[in-house]
Prior knowledge:
The complex is a heterodimer of chains A (313) and B (428).
Chain A: H1 17-30, E1 48-53, H2 59-70, E2 74-79, H3 91-100, E3 105-110, H4 115-120, E4 126-132, H5 138-152, E5 159-163, H6 170-181, E6 185-189, E7 204-206, H7 210-214, E8 219-222, H8 238-245, H9 249-255, E9 260-262, H10 275-278, H11 285-307
Helix pairs in contact in A: 1-5, 1-11, 2-11, 5-6, 5-11
Chain B: E1 2-12, E2 17-26, E3 29-34, E4 51-54, E5 59-62, E6 64-69, H1 82-91, E7 94-99, H2 110-123, E8 127-132, H3 146-152, E9 156-157, H4 167-179, E10 183-186, E11 198-199, H5 202-207, E12 211-212, H6 215-231, E13 234-237, H7 243-254, E14 259-263, H8 265-269, H9 291-303, E15 308-309, H10 318-321, H11 338-347, H12 353-368, E16 383-393, E17 412-422, E18 425-426
Parallel strand pairs in B: 1-4, 1-5, 6-7, 7-8, 8-9, 10-13, 11-12, 13-14, 14-15
Antiparallel strand pairs in B: 1-2, 2-3, 5-16, 16-17, 17-18
Helix pairs in contact in B: 2-3, 4-6, 6-7, 7-9
Amino acid sequence: MNHFHQKHILDMASLSEQEIDYIINTAKTLKDISERPIKKVPTLRGKSIVHFFHEPSTRTRTSFEIAAKRMSADTFSISASTSSMTKGETLLDTVNTLQAMNPDIIVMRHSESGAPHFVSRHLNASVINAGDGMHAHPTQCLLDLMTVHEALGKINGLKLSIIGDIFHSRVARSNIVGFTKMGATVTVTAPCTMIPHGIDKLGARVAKTLEEAVSDADVVMALRIQKERQSNFFFPTEREYASFYGLTYERLKSMNKNAFIMHPGPINRGVELSSDIADCPESLIMKQVTNGVAIRMALLYLLMGGTRNAHSN
Amino acid sequence: MRILIENGTVIDPQQSLDDIRNVYIDSNNIAAVLAPEDLSKAPFCRDEADYVYDARGQIICPGLVDMHVHLREPGQEYKETIETGCKSAAYGGFTDVCCMPNTKPVNDNPEITTYIIEKARSLGGTRVHPVAAISPGSSGKGLTEMGLILDAGACAFSDDGQPVSDSQLMRRAMEYARSFDALIISHCEDLRLAEGVMNEGIISTRMGLAGIPNAAETVMVMRDIALCELTGARLHIAHVSTAQSVDAIKHAKEKGLPVTAETAPHYFTLTDSAVLEYDTHAKMNPPLRTEIDREAIRNALAEGVIDVIATDHAPHSDLEKMVTFDQAANGIIGLETSLPLGLKLVHDNVLTLSQLIEKMSINPTKIVRIPEKRISSGYPADLTIIDLSKKHTISAKLFQSKSRNTPFDGWTCMGKVMQTIVNGRLCL
């Protein structure tokens, strides 16, 4: 029986609890492919996947490339700086041009919120959102859910605390939606400048202090503090941020003995996380990266199996 | 040291106390507050006191607090130092003052904040609570390390005379301050509208001086109230001078916003007619306004729309004041004239004595969140003793302050500070 009928993966809000479960379970079965000596299966042979990255990315892009190649799909990359968008082409024209070449999946990252939704309305191919503006990063949320599920055996009833720039974070928004949908409680904390209006209505509890957020959490997720936000007055200095919201191993242990640590990367060592915590035994950061490949393999597989028969060849 | 203050009238609005009491002080704290005949409960008898003060006919009230002064140190010690400023404060009856950050360099970091507090503490008199800058160097570009500065002991944030023009920065500053429940003090002034040297009106026209309209203040009061509503941060409006500002603050308070306000003695005492002789001692920012504004300020004090009387004590030397009106620096000193001018409001039946004490002690204490002052056993002995019937003439040359820039030199007043006690220590 097929549990998956989505054409696109645009955000966590449009996935059901059952679908999320199904994606994670599929990813777990595909994970061992990456541990074999020959890391390739023929499942997506003959499928064309375009990686359309309109914003810098290392880990997400590499993760998608590896996932696609391990499934034997043909991949093509377009980045903003090398595409004809630098010549003034509109996003719609670029997308129509791509459509004319008949790809199966377009993996898209864009600096503007809603860009993948716009593109999906004009394409026959499936669209996977690899991060749009401050809106959503569903594959990150799915790999985070998978990582927490592996570490703690469940999601339902857990407490996740997200520390940092919630305002600008698509990871935070997707995780608030995704984790609450799966029965977890999500708490956020940051300087008030970095807490967006109405985030509580999205399902997150706002804690006033780091201590309050961390003390009873099962999982603590730190977000990257972006230096460029300083110029727009979101925080004064990295020194001040680190002293009120930065986690060191000692500080974490004094607030909470058992919490796991996560971070979507890249880390600013010494700001949101100290080096001793990034590499501590409770850190799931490297597992997040590993699971990222499995989640993306699962999504590629399910999208092809859900809309067309990927196993027919 | 044991101090006995005998037979004074203790007025403490927080306890609705207004009665003859003996106040017993043992080292830093108040040991007992007893009716004079109630000798059985006295913690020590009269003979055991190291110092006995006869306060018959005088008022004993919680120590006065001035939440808006300029102490000029570090950097402009020729105008005032922490030492002379604190001494001036003690002679004015103040046990606590909050000093603005426009020193040289600007107090925009934990180190200068600590320096000021430590310096004042080493002198042992009036306490100093620094107000630190909102933006580094009060440049209006970026935020200071508010959390670290609060940990160092600052009581609020303000760019004071360099008001934050950038509304986005002000919004972020207030949001950021809310993370720590910190107070933002706003000197409300639109810098372009305020490109003048005195109040804009008949007198500025007659004198040929460039005017500053009321709107220069009011537009910023309204902006900051709007940002207060947006961010939920605690906002205190400094030195209110116009009738329109009063209306805006009244409206904000009716809406339940966390807005408080202060005015300075010169705004409820003088009008722009004080400038008529091109007297640079009547030049300040905001400028002295009209009789309509003065009346509105007095009503606002009576109605409680304005919570606090603060001096904006701004010492300047002759270098800045013995010049032409256009060239002269803004500001006057106020620590040693504030109480006598405040008492005029009592004599004019604008405020009761109890209300005046609220505005000069209780309310600022609550707003800047320094330890409560209560004339009750166990509380720190922070007291001001006032002789209401003492007629005296203000004489600038007798001031403890290093500066003399006051328009009130030679004024005759009723009521004088007789003693200021900080932490059980006699300061006069």
